[in-house]
Every structure is written in C-alpha cells, then in structure tokens.
Amino acid sequence: MAKNIEIKAYAHSFDQQFESALKIADTQPELLEQRDTFFNSPRGRLKLREFPDQEAQLIYYHRPDQSGPKLSDYQITHTPDADALRATLSEVLGELAVVEKQRTLLMSGRTRLHFDRVLGLGVFIELEVVLTESEDVDSGISEAQELMQILSINEADLVENAYVDLILKSQTSS
User: Alpha-carbon distance 33 to 53, whole Å?
Assistant: First the structure.
C-alpha cells in the first residue's frame, strides 16, 4: 500500500496561505471538482471519488484520527463507471455520507498541497507528503512541519478528523 504523511487544517487566511503556496509550488494550480461518497467500512475508510468527466477513483485509506502530521496508508483503484460501482457498494456496504468540494491542487516537490472549499464546512488546507516504500516516516513528518511553517498553519488550526467525520458531526448537531 502507498503511504503519505498528512495534515489537515482550517485555513485561517485562505488567500494569503494560497499565495504562500504559489511561491513554493512546482506546478500551476489545478482546479478539481470532487464528490466523495463514503461507504460503511469495517476497517479504515472507503470512498468513491467522482469527477465531472465521469471518471472516478475508489480510495481505501487508514490513518489515525489525530491532529498534526500522521501516517496514512492508502490504495487507489481507477474506474470508468462510477455509477455502477457506487450502486454496487451502496447495496453491499451502505452509504455513510457524501462530501463535495472544490479542490485546488499544487505540487511542491513530492508534496500535494490541497486548498479545499468543502460544501457545508468551509475552507481547509491539506498536505500530503508522499513517502517511498522504504522511507522513514520521520522525514515525511519533518517535511510536513516545515511546510506548515511556510504556509502559516498553526497547531490550533489542525483538524484530527476526515471531512466525512466533520459532515456527520454537523448533521447530528443540527
């Protein structure tokens, strides 16, 4: 399984933080519309990520719910038929929740910088430092912490849960 070190944070100054990211980015911003349907899973999280062009990815991942840099194991399977796969998974596992977002993706070295506008939740920054198979986790954590400083991400901004957890929490409190 692939691995990365991930952090998620509320964006306290979204536009300024994005400008800081542009200065260290190796790529031009890529705007992505994503619809993630989460399914009940006995272990980890399972979601179907759909794009407007009908392409989709089935993504399984497992990571601890904690703030700050954390190790995430993940596996991605591409599918050309999102509707059929969603129907099958919904029938077998049941849908947990849907997360819709507009994501601006930048790359800085091996790190994916996500600037997310999540429907019903607000604006967030997510960093994913992609690790090689034999790489030490501490080097990825160190890199994530350096990027947090560059992007002015404070400890108080860190989010320990996935967007789906925040959506579910907002649904139960309303």
Answer: 10
On whether the CB atoms of residues 131 and 144 are closer than 8 A, the answer is no
Give the E-state strand segments of the chain in sequence order. Answer: 2-10, 30-39, 45-50, 56-62, 70-79, 95-108, 111-118, 122-131
With CA atoms as reference, report the closest residue to 2 among 89, 66, 77, 54: 77
pLDDT band at 174 (very low <50, low <70, confident <90, very high): low
pLDDT tens-digit readout, 39-84:
999 999 999 999 998 789 999 999 988 888 999 999 999 999 899 9
**Residue 69 forms beta bridges with which residues?**
none
CB 127 within 8 A of CB 7: yes
Rounded Cα–Cα distance for residues 60 and 76 (Å):
7
The CA distance from 146 to 169, in Å, is 31
